[in-house]
Amino acid sequence: MQKIDMTPDDSSELFQLLRSVDFFEGMTMGQLQLVVPHIMMVQYEAGEKVVTQGEKGDSFYVVSDGSLSVSVKKGFFGKKELATLGAGSFFGEMALIDASPRNATVTAITPARLFVLFAHQFVTVMNSNPDFASQIMRIAEERKLSGR
Ligand code: CMP
Known about the structure:
This protein has six helices and nine strands. The chain has helices at residues 11-19, 22-25, 29-35, 93-98, 119-128, 130-146; strands at residues 2-4, 40-44, 49-51, 59-65, 68-74, 78-85, 90-91, 105-108, 112-118. The longest helix is centred in the last third of the chain and has 17 residues, at 130-146.
């Protein structure tokens, strides 16, 4: 994992980029302005794990580009693929919403760039945008069911 440094000059570019990602589209300029300074961008190589099932989670991710696989352990050595995530999709919400360990392992299939929001920023965004919060909760519920 490599942190991608963003200079203040990059911020207008970051705005453009964020607006093209579904997750951020529902946010007003004001809301974006509040979270943008806290958003980190990280790069993962193909094969690297971003989150690991069973571990504690304190961050939420939105995919800028690349593709990632979501899988869960099955038995001692097996695993079951639950989904493939690409640009604009998010993950890591379940551990934050339920204060539970990570429900699945998310691994980069290709090199991937991700936006990272730490738990308290995620909560700020959720609290300031109830429609948005209910949408995320709904998706988290669907994922929970499909992971069974
Ligand atoms: P979290 O449990 O924090 O960490 C693993 C993440 O994988 C989880 O949040 C969801 O974002 C994601 N995830 C879990 N199950 C599924 C699923 N069935 N489909 C897509 N994503 C999932």
